[in-house]
Every structure is written in C-alpha cells, then in structure tokens.
Amino acid sequence: MAYGGFRELASLNYVMSSVKSLLKHKPRVVTVDLLEALGRFLAEDVTAHINIPPYNRSVVDGYAVRSIDTFGASLSNPVILRVKAFIRVGESPEIEIGPGEAVEVSTGARLPRGADAVLMYEKTRRLGDIIEVLEPVPPYGNVSKIGEDIREGEVVLRRGMRLMPWDIAVLASLGLKTVNVYEVRVAVASIGSELVELDNIQDIREVLDKNLVVNSNKYSMIAQLRSSGFTPHYIGIIPDNIDEIASRLREAIAEYDAVLTMGGASVGKVDYTIEAVRRLNPEILIHGVHMRPGRANSIAVIKGKPVFMLSGFPVASIVGFEALVKPILLYMVNGNDDPKPKIKGILTRRVNTPINVRSYVRVRVYRKNDGIYVEPLALTGSGVLSTLVRGNGILIVPEDREGYDEGDIVEVTLLREVFEG
Amino acid sequence: MAYGGFRELASLNYVMSSVKSLLKHKPRVVTVDLLEALGRFLAEDVTAHINIPPYNRSVVDGYAVRSIDTFGASLSNPVILRVKAFIRVGESPEIEIGPGEAVEVSTGARLPRGADAVLMYEKTRRLGDIIEVLEPVPPYGNVSKIGEDIREGEVVLRRGMRLMPWDIAVLASLGLKTVNVYEVRVAVASIGSELVELDNIQDIREVLDKNLVVNSNKYSMIAQLRSSGFTPHYIGIIPDNIDEIASRLREAIAEYDAVLTMGGASVGKVDYTIEAVRRLNPEILIHGVHMRPGRANSIAVIKGKPVFMLSGFPVASIVGFEALVKPILLYMVNGNDDPKPKIKGILTRRVNTPINVRSYVRVRVYRKNDGIYVEPLALTGSGVLSTLVRGNGILIVPEDREGYDEGDIVEVTLLREVFEG
Predict the structure, then answer these.
(1) A20 to each of A24, A234, B11, B389, B420, how far by Cα in Å?
(2) Which fold is adopted by the domain A57-144?
(3) Domain B12-27+184-332 has CATH 3.40.980.10
(4) Which ipTM was obtained for this model?
(5) pLDDT tens per residue, range B180-223
(6) Contacts of B144 in chain A (CB under 8 A)
(7) Measured between beta carbons, which residues in chain A are less than 8 angstroms from residue B386?
C-alpha cells in the first residue's frame, strides 16, 4: 500500500516562486492614525513637504554670532560682542544681529537673522551685556541647518516599509496625522471534529477524557499574524466534512485577502481540507512541502489569493507560518521580514536530518565558560510545544545537508535570550 | 563660566546599580485574556495541572498494535493481525486489543488499551479485515506518550517571561483562559512651551513659522513602550514652568508605576524638569549620563518609583529609552530583554567617540560582493531622526574605547534588514 496522500513533496523554493507568480489580488489600503500604524506596512512612498529643521537652529545653549566676528579670538586676545537679547526655543522675535553683536540662545532656538554660528557658553566670558569670545567658531558651528535632517521634496519613507517607532515620529514631525498602510485580512480557521474552543470549556479534564482537543493553535496563529503586522479574522472551527470545509473556505476566499487553515491536512486517509480546496478550482495546489516538521503544510492559490493549509500539529503550524505564510504575506505588501536575532554556537550532539528537506530543529542555546553551546531538543515531535517553550532557538538545516556533527559551529535563530549555564 | 548644569555625568553601569537598589514599588498584576497577553510579562510561575498529551496517542496514520506481536515480522515472513476497528482523532471508543489484534488509527488518535505502538501504513499490507505486518515496531514506536510534552506538576512558564505566540498556545492547551501579567503603567509627558500637539495642528507651515515644534517624541515613545510590553499613559504637554512641572509630576508619581518626561532636561540655563524633580525629594537624582547622544538623559527615584527625564532631542530620547528606561522597567517585572538581531561588518570610515562615554552611532549596513559593510551615518546630531530612518543599524561603542578604525570588524544591532549594494 502506498504511503498516504503525498505523491511528491515540493521544495520551499519551488513553493515561493510558483505561488508568488499566481498572486493577483492586492490587499486593501487603509488610512490609520499614527499610533495605529506601528508595525504596519506603508502603502505609499512618503515625500516631505517641508524642511526639517525648518530653519537654522542652535544645537547648544550659548550665543548666536556672526562667525566672521570671532576669527582670531583667543584667551589672551578675546573679541568683545554686545548681547542684544535672549531667544528661547519656540520664541520668534524679530531680531537681526550686525557686526559686533550676539544673541543668547537656548538649544533648539531659531538663529536670529545675520547669525551663522553659535558659541557655547564655555567659549565665552560674560560681563553684563558684553561677552568676551575666547575662541573662534567656524561658519555653521553648533548650528543645525535648514533641511539638514529632511529636505523638502525628498522621499523619506518607502512603500512596503514596516513602520517602526522612529518612522512614526518622522511622520509626526512632518505634520501628518494619518498614514496609508496595507491591511492584509487573513481568515483563520481550525479544522477538526475533535477540536473544542477554549472559551467553551468548563473543565479541561472532561474535555480530555472525551479524547477531544483544545483548539490551541488558534492562539499561536493569531498571535503570530498580529505580531508580524497582519490582521487575523478568526472564523471558527470547521468539522471534518469536505462539503462544509469547501463552503466555508469559498466564503472566506471571497471576503478576505488570504485564508489559513490548521488541521485536516495530514498524511492519512482522511485529508478533508485538501479535498475541499481541490473542489474550489485552485490555480495551483501544492500538497505537502519538503520541510520538517510540517511536511503536511500545503498551499493553494484561488482567485489570485493564497490559501494556506497548515498541519494541525502545533510546532508544524508555527514553523509553517514562518516558512510559508509570512514570506507570501510580506510579498503581498512589498515588505521585508524583520531581521532575526542569530547566534553562533557549538553543537553539543549530532543532528540527523533528511536530505532535500529543510529541517527546523528546536534547540537550547546556553553560555558556559565563555562558550556558546547549542543543544538539540527535538528532531521530531511536531506536536511537542514544550520544546519551543523550554528551548530558546531554532536551528535551520538546509536542504543540501543531512544534519550537523557534534562540535560543528552552527548558526541559530534566537527566540529568547541565551541561557546562562 | 562653568559649562551648563552637569557637574559630573554618571556611567550607565552606575545608573543601573544605584537606581535598581532604590526601586521599592511593584507594578500591579492584572488578569488578561490569552490574546491580550501577547508580549506581556508573566506575573507568576505557571504549573501544569494536566499531562500533555493526556494519554498515549498515535503520531502517524496506521495500525495500533501490541509491539510484541510484530517481533520477527518481515517481508518474506509477515505477521498476520486482525483489524478490529478504526479510531479517528477525537473519538473515544471503548476498545481493547489482545494478541493478534490491531486497530486502525488516524494521527492524534488515542491508543486503544493493550496497544503500545503504531505501524505506519507502508509497513503493512491490507487484505480485508487482515493486515500483514512487514516489519517489527518497537514499544512506543510512533507513539506520543502521556506527559511527553508537559508533565503534570511541572513548571511550564516562569514569572518574568515575555509571552510569545507558542507560550500562549501552551496556556490554551492547559485549558487556561486567562493569565496574570504585570501591568507597568508609564506616565509620559512632553515638556516645553514650544511644543504643539499634532492633533491641534491645522497647517504645519504656520506652526513652523511661529518657531513652534510638533510634539513628535510622544509618538516614538508611546510606540517604543508598547512594543516592549509596557503600558504608556500620555498625560500631555507641560509648559516650561517649574511649579507646574513639579505639580504634574507629583500627581503622576502618585498614580503610575513610572514617569517619563521628554524635554526640559537640557544642559543650559533653563533646566526646568531637573529643578522640578529636585523639589519632589527624590531618593536619588542623576543628572546626565555618559552616553552620546543623550548625555542630558537623567533619572530619579521618587517614592520607590523611577522617574526618567529624557532629552527632547528625538534620537537622544529614542536611544535613552533603550539604554536607560527599558532595562529599569524590565527589572521591575523580573524580565529579560528580547534578543536583538546583530551582524558583523567592515567599518567603511573611522568613528571617533569620546572615552568614558557609551556612544550610539547610527549606521547603514549593506551587502556588497559578499561582504557586509558598516557605514557610519551620524556621530552627532541627536536631533537628526532621518539617520534612523535612512540607516538600519546602531553601532554601540563602549566606554573603554575612543571609537573604531576604518576596516575594523564591528558588531552592529540591526533595526532593519541589511541593504543590498
């Protein structure tokens, strides 16, 4: 008897190139307030319509001067200037300085007309309305020039950038109250007649006694989507019934930008989700990929939108999100993934992985006697969530390797900080 | 004339140890739904009150058997077993197998009593109600044992852990609907009579013509606090008036777990925030730290709570958050910082930094001809936000160095992915 439903698994590279070429749907653009924009993907280039700073301003506390007046000044031969006024940041007095004049300014204050530099207090000696300049200051010394930070007309932020705190501050500095970002609405469904919603549970032991399973994948997936800048819409549990799955997925595909299921995409006789998706006339249907855990993870394109069918095994779906879902959703918004924290360490035990498969090995990274060590926790066991919780890293073994030897230096993606000892 | 208000700057290490020893206040513990818990800090150890899996279950599709029955089986000499039933995941039939018997199971299904292993389909040949076993399976082969993932009584998650997607899934698997997390409520105020709220602006050019400044720091600070797992409460702009600052800060200290101001903590004559805080009888007041940018960043402890007084310069306040605020807030929740993405590259130009100062140099990291290069963007200019937006990394130069030479290999914290070319 042939083994299960997988005839030929697809490589992750093949999945990416073939699926991307078929995605015709574009996610919607929404206008959001700045504080709602954190972590979202910019839907347009942002061009500055003003200069920042909008005028020459002082970057220190001191005296605004004509730099030419200070040339040749020294401790033994100070230049004398007359202080006309004090300009604080935010004030806009109509003051101009001429030869022999200075204006006291606070940090951030606009330079008075005529001034082109600022002397710090310590380079001067104050005597009533007079200062002695003890050192020369060059033109634009201690001055932030108009447009030095951002030039009017310049493209400051580009479409597809994921907005970070400082990007939001730049938008505010430009006087923009809202910003256009992509909204990628992802329908999330859990498939399996054995599943029970956490909210409906009175006593977990009763659930387990009936051999039912808490729908915990829902939580990790919604959390992964949110923290990656996408917008999950949970549409519920669908029982193991091909008609019902097909009908619910058809609706979801019409309504959302992407659809994601967990469960019902296994290796066995009972492969409801795949059969349901087959009925929806996919442009492409890739059943199973060369990854481990998660070889049951599958993907289709229907009406130009991606449909992800992830394994019901917790770790397989979590890794499937990183390997399959996130790259495709990022592609839809022209975005790049955030950089990942990585660390190199010494492998404490041989890791065996199959050739032609990308393997995601959960590991524990620790520091001991100034060395960094990588201890493999689980090679199999795609259901064993605790390895992600007890461990703090993932070692990705690429397709062209059959693992790593004990003592090899390997690079690991860190999920939490390195453990001590 | 003496230079400004800084007599002696404090090292960051001194700040951390002296401030931490004075923090007596504990943030409150709140009970939140699981999906609200993402990125928050756990306020208690979580102990498993059940086993996961709750029973021995199959990790493949195939036949549950007594392993002892399969010993000696081979292609030429198969063992014959009778198939009694089919158990799907979620089903709980009262079935027991005896010698010579098997039960067909789907992945995740509970093993029937008597069975201790599962044969994958490909190791069998089906003939009606009979299977031929073509290979032996060891005890617990293809079985996920009770408690293998999580043992009843085991501490699964520890106080202070920042909750990640998989942690939330573990809590759900344990049947927990809510979780106790710390809530660190941080009052955020912007100080400066020159500031205008973005929301009150009609035309940014009018604001700039009056030499007023948009309160953009508010946005980056709220975003930084939120994305680090803390809870900002913005309390508004306070004008440059020592009485008013003192009164608003007194209220905020009574109400919140920490207080953070931006602006009004400069080097100059006008140092409103520091003077206001001095009036509130701080247990400690550290005015200025050996960091650059951000030497004006200051910190106090009042009534056992931290009061951060950050520079009004955008980059100085952003860096001040990372260097001063975040470590202290993490300490209050017993938390560790997330690991940061780092990369090594070749410095394209000498960087000069002062000795005894921790310098945060904004850099642009790019890949060219297989090499990674680090181009310094700004050594000074703590107001120049665009360097954070155009760049993609921060090079931290420690206190014991006066910079790095062109060609040095340096390690950089990445804010965005490495640029190409």
Answers:
(1) 9, 24, 51, 29, 21
(2) Molybdopterin biosynthesis moeA protein; domain 3 (2.170.190)
(3) yes
(4) 0.92
(5) 999 999 999 999 988 999 999 999 999 988 888 999 999 999 99
(6) 381, 383-384
(7) 52, 149-150, 156, 170
